[in-house]
């Protein structure tokens, strides 16, 4: 199938239909989408902790699957996604509309720590959209592009989410030390140990504990960790 983004492929997970630009698909993500394993752990964790009155923020929205699932539970007007890959940001927004949730929003940009002063950062596309990540300008290679930068503290203050899902392919390490607003009750975070190692994972846990969160075993599995305020 073709649309404004070129040739696309269509996948269905449960009742949700996702259309994704073929250029953004690698073998691994294609297999996960076809088998229904795509973001399965995130979906289970979110379904465990979401409440009907939540305002949901999905950092690293990908194809818009989690945004669409959240919209089913809390209403599309209470869902916001952020995606750095420009092609996937457009695809995620279209997938929300495709599934009947056009009022949900997916912004194009990358979340960064408050210490980042640039208005744009370099984003490195990978083989398959789920491996794209923010890089330093010097490390950018073929396929890199500049994307708008959103500082986490200001972004949280503006949108006041109660439930946050974070999958930033290692970018979460740059968010250590950022203050979380009192309204945020639960954070579902995918760790990427291959990008930063055990010492950084320890610091991530320490910071969430310092911010008043505790580890929630319900929904946590492997590299997916749920933090919850009690």
The helical percent reads: 25-40%
**Rg over alpha carbons:** 16 Å
- Strand fraction equals 25-35%
Give the helix tally: 6
Which class best fits the helix and strand makeup? alpha/beta
Structure description:
By secondary structure, the protein is α/β, with parallel strands linked by helices. Helix content is 30%, strand content 31%. It has six helices and 14 strands. The protein has helices at residues 27-35, 40-49, 65-74, 86-98, 152-159, 193-210, and strands spanning 2-3, 6-13, 16-21, 56-59, 79-83, 105-108, 110-112, 120-124, 133-135, 144-151, 163-166, 186-190, 213-221, 224-229. The strands form three sheets. The protein has a seven-stranded mixed beta sheet, sandwiched between helices. It is globular, with a radius of gyration of 16 Å. The mean pLDDT is 94.
